[in-house]
Amino acid sequence: MIIKDINYIKHLNAVFVLFSKDNRLNPTHISLYIALFHLWNMYHFPMEFYINRQEVMALAKIGSKSTYHRSIKALSHWEYLLYNPSKNKFKGSQIMMFQFGTSSGQEVDLIGAKNGTRSGQEVVSKIKHIQTLKNNKNDTKLENLNFKNFSELDKRHCRVPNPDHLKIDLNKNYDEPL
Description:
This protein is mainly alpha-helical. Helices cover about 35% and strands about 5% of the residues.
């Protein structure tokens, strides 16, 4: 049976919101979920489908079987999907993906809107970059540093006779072999 009302974009957006709020996840979990979602999409969103471990590991860029099994079991335990492992190596494990972000109506984003109305497209990201002001006032850029007489200043304050730790011989005979 195929699920007809899966909206690819809404589902992924909802999952990414869940991912951003879930501190248990690491990049392997996310990569594995995206690989499984890709297969689910390729099979046209059936209620359940069967997977080949090697194929999923290659799609998710996972190199270790133990990492794969640990991650897929964690995703199942955390209810991102339902994983039913197969004991038969000729029959793949069964996966049932849960639906996220699918609804019957149009979603309206009222965040930042005045009186629930909005005209035009929001261009600026909602996430503020805290470092922007600090970076704009950063005085340690190379063009702001004064390098005039830097070598003389360094030599005057240095207590080591040769600050580069090189031996200097003023009476060097350049005809001698090295």
